[in-house]
Write a structure and sequence with these properties.
This protein is of the alpha+beta class and 150 residues long. The chain has one domain: Beta Barrel (OB fold (Dihydrolipoamide Acetyltransferase, E2P)). It is 23% helix and 44% strand. A 5-stranded mixed β-barrel has the order 1-3-4-6-5. α2 runs antiparallel to α3. The longest helix has 16 residues. The termini are far apart. 15% of the residues are buried.
């Protein structure tokens, strides 16, 4: 029996910067930079941080741009791809990028006023509802208002 190839990745971490969105015709692309830190050793005192670029498209890109902020916890499900380009000096460059198919939004960093942590389960349920609304054709602003409880 022949095995089929699988290109799938799940990455959890924190956003290293606010999302950046660009429009290409009628399509929207939002780019994220995620820091995923692995801890090990006695007392988890050793750390290694992996930085990954993530691109999302369409409705997921719009929702992500509206909701996410620097420092927020996210879990991304997607596939790996390699972007190739040539820099100004003519040197070929490449980087690995995750193309997101789904993003779960977690806790945002505490505000200066010391806000309480976000209820992750409640946020996951609201996010699921939001994604279903957007996929069903509900106006994005109306869907976000539901997420924010307005």
């Amino acid at each position: 029996m022949m095995m089929s190839d699988v290109n799938s990745i799940v990455l959890s971490g924190r956003l290293g910067r606010d999302p950046e969105s660009r429009t290409f015709g009628e399509n929207v692309k939002t780019s994220l930079r995620i820091a995923s830190t692995r801890r090990w050793g006695p007392g988890d005192d050793k750390r290694e941080t992996l930085w990954m670029d993530v691109d999302c498209w369409g409705n997921l890109a719009k929702v992500t741009a509206d909701i996410c902020t620097k420092g927020q916890e996210v879990t991304v499900v997607g596939r790996l791809t390699i972007e190739n380009w040539t820099d100004k000096e003519g040197v070929p460059k490449s980087k690995m990028v995750i193309v997101a198919s789904d993003i779960s939004f977690g806790a945002k960093p505490a505000a200066a006023g010391g806000e309480a942590p976000v209820d992750k389960e409640a946020l996951k349920q609201k996010m699921k509802t939001l994604m279903e609304m957007v996929k069903g054709g509900v106006d994005q602003d109306a869907a976000i208002a539901v997420l924010l409880g307005q």
